[in-house]
Amino acid sequence: MPKLRVLIVDDEEQFRAPIRAVLASRGLEVMEAGTATQMDALLSRFEIDILLLDVNLPGESGLQIANRLKQTRNIEIIMLSAFGEVEHRVNGLISGADYYLPKPVDIRELLAVIECCKRQTYDDIAAPASWQFDAAKWLLITPDGVEHSLSKSELNIVNALISMAGKTVTREQLYAAMGIPDYPPESRSLDVHITRIRRRFTTDSYAIPIITVRNVGYLFNDAVKIHR
């Protein structure tokens, strides 16, 4: 299995150095850039699997970079920023980031996110059977070709996630899809439903690719065929 190649884009060398050392010790191939220009030069020469991208860069910002790269490249983007408020995280995810981690970065969380990216990258290489969804018939078809009837709550949640596959669906949007536009902040109803869906559609052969975007919502992180 080929080494995963990670590119760290941050204008502070003292920030890049310890992360580079940890990732290299885990068997990853690590490259560095301090600006968008340096990043583009590396991207023109190498295939990068994961981009660790700072938001505040000189010149072109991380948000702008994520937006343009996602239009032309299949690359996992982990955005890093000292701004950790929900509004900033949402802006980062909308711009094209797959994950958004606040600075200072907890290396354990970063490694866990990279592991998720690694699984996604190797799954893409293996080209697994796709998921299929038929909203009219209330069916989710798993990669083994089996048709599963959905309950009303499952249908509403899965439909909201799959209709925006690859993009984060906020908790507000998912609660609205469930018919609960006004919900108390402490409500965990959505999370309970997601847990049940994950449990139902996870086997030794596949796992439903619903990813948690912390404090924001969830996303369906795989290609899916939608029956009209």
UniProtKB/TrEMBL annotation:
Which Pfam family is an annotated match for this chain, by its short name? Response_reg
GO cellular component labels: cytosol; protein-DNA complex
GO biological-process terms attached to the record: regulation of DNA-templated transcription
Sections of the chain in a coiled coil:
none
For this UniProt entry, what is the primary localization, expressed as one broad class? cytoplasm
Q: Which residues bind DNA?
A: 123-222
Which key words are in the record? Answer: Activator, Cytoplasm, DNA-binding, Phosphoprotein, Repressor, Transcription, Transcription regulation, Two-component regulatory system
Positions modified as 4-aspartylphosphate? Answer: D54
Residues covered by the Response regulatory domain: 5-118
| Name the UniProt record assigns to this protein | Transcriptional regulatory protein OmpR
Query: What is the organism field in this record?
Result: Methylophaga muralis
**Which lineage is the organism of this entry classified under, starting from the top rank?**
Bacteria, Pseudomonadati, Pseudomonadota, Gammaproteobacteria, Thiotrichales
